[in-house]
Amino acid sequence: MNYAQKTTLVAIAAVSLLAAACAKKTAKAPPPPATPAPAAAPSHATAPPQSAANTQPAATSPKSKYPDAATRARIDQLLAKIEDAYFDYNQANLRPDAVKALHDDSAELRDILKDYPDYKLSIEGHCDERGSDEYNLALGDRRAQSAKDYLVNVGIPSDQLKVVSYGKQRPVCQEHDEACWQKNRRIHIVAMNQPPQ
């Protein structure tokens, strides 16, 4: 064996010994200390995948802001029972009989309406035929506002009540006497047009 071959064999042996020594060191080295995970942190690797249905809350559909057909029918019944509130000539303050007319079914109406904030009522103010159109429109507005103030005081939300005046434009009686004029000096409450279902 010549000198070059001996040198090559020694180099191969040295590399082999060095590789074996490194392998032993790596095998004998202790593993790095494990960092404990926080107790509240969820383990994403072990959690089973959730379906889309499981991630949604049970009640995902919001409650309708408009009453269903049965509730609307009950509101219509209550509005039909709430008699028109009548006023004295040239007056906008509620008389005792007008207060009674508004009071009788307003508590149930209030309890229904609070669950449907987008459902609106219109309070119409009316007058008899005497006086100018402008005067009667203003008087009808004051009458409707008096009724609205009363209904708000019993708990019906103000933003669910709209005031409109028709003055002397929509009489319920066409005679030209006090008995007929008294029927025309009134407020009337109706449900406003609601959006299509």
Approximate strand percentage: 5-15%
Share in helix:
40-55%
Return the average pLDDT rounded to an integer.
78
CATH topology value of the domain at 69-191: 60s Ribosomal Protein L30, Chain: A
CATH secondary-structure class of the domain at 69-191: Alpha Beta
Distance between the termini: 103 Å
What overall form do the CA principal axes indicate? elongated
The biggest beta sheet, please?
A: 4 strands, mixed
Name the structural class.
alpha+beta
What string, H for helix and E for strand, traces the elements in order?
A: HHHEHHEHEHE
Task: Give the oligomer, counting copies of the same chain as homo and different chains as hetero.
Answer: single chain
Read across the widest sheet, the strand sequence of neighbours is: 1-4-2-3
Gyration radius from CA atoms, angstroms: 42 Å
How many helices? The count is 7
Q: CATH superfamily membership of the domain at 69-191, which one?
A: OmpA-like domain
CATH architecture of the domain at 69-191: 2-Layer Sandwich
Summarize the structure.
This protein has a domain at 69-191: OmpA-like domain (60s Ribosomal Protein L30, Chain: A, 2-Layer Sandwich), CATH 3.30.1330.60. The chain is 44% helix and 11% strand.
Account of the protein in words:
The chain has a domain at 69-191: 2-Layer Sandwich (60s Ribosomal Protein L30, Chain: A), CATH 3.30.1330.60. The protein is 44% helix and 11% strand. The chain contains 7 helices and 4 strands. The chain has helices spanning 3-28, 52-55, 69-81, 96-103, 106-113, 133-153, 178-184, and strands at residues 85-86, 121-126, 161-167, 186-191. Strands 1-4-2-3 form a 4-stranded mixed beta sheet. Helix 6 links the parallel strand 2 (121-126) and strand 3. The protein starts with a helix and ends in a 6-residue tail after the last strand.
